[in-house]
Amino acid sequence: MVILSGLAALLGTTTETDNVGALILSVLEGELFAIYKGLLLAWEAGFKEVYCETDCYEAYVLLKDSNIPFYSEESVLISRIQNILLWPWRVELNLFQRTANRVADAMVKHATIHVVHYTEWLLPWDDLRELINLDVAIS
């Protein structure tokens, strides 16, 4: 099982292969794009059980709704994510409180400051370890 969590800070970037609303302009679009890319990465890595977390209520509600009643900038991306959720695997999409997201926020800030597009950490850095310990103590 893999756990996907966090927000992609991809403001002003484009994707050539995805052909999905290339310019990220809002928090909602950023969250949806992070979910989309995370699901694709999990699929390509061969995971068959995925636990996907978001702290964005609007993204969660839009993805849980099978009918998108309006056309918006996000509707194409929402449709693509909903299609991915139908692939032969188990994906659980969950909403959690933003206050429980300190670790993901620290990782996004780190990636934004260091202009990192994709990184795998084998061990957390000291400040991140403190946040992990705090989150574990609270939960």
From TrEMBL:
Domain RNase H type-1: 26-111
Origin: domain of life: Eukaryota
Protein source organism: Stylosanthes scabra
Transmembrane segments: none
Pfam entry (one): RVT_3
Listed InterPro entries: RNase_H-like (IPR053151), RNase_H-like_dom_plant (IPR044730), RNaseH_domain (IPR002156)
Name this protein carries in UniProt: RNase H type-1 domain-containing protein
Position of the signal peptide: none
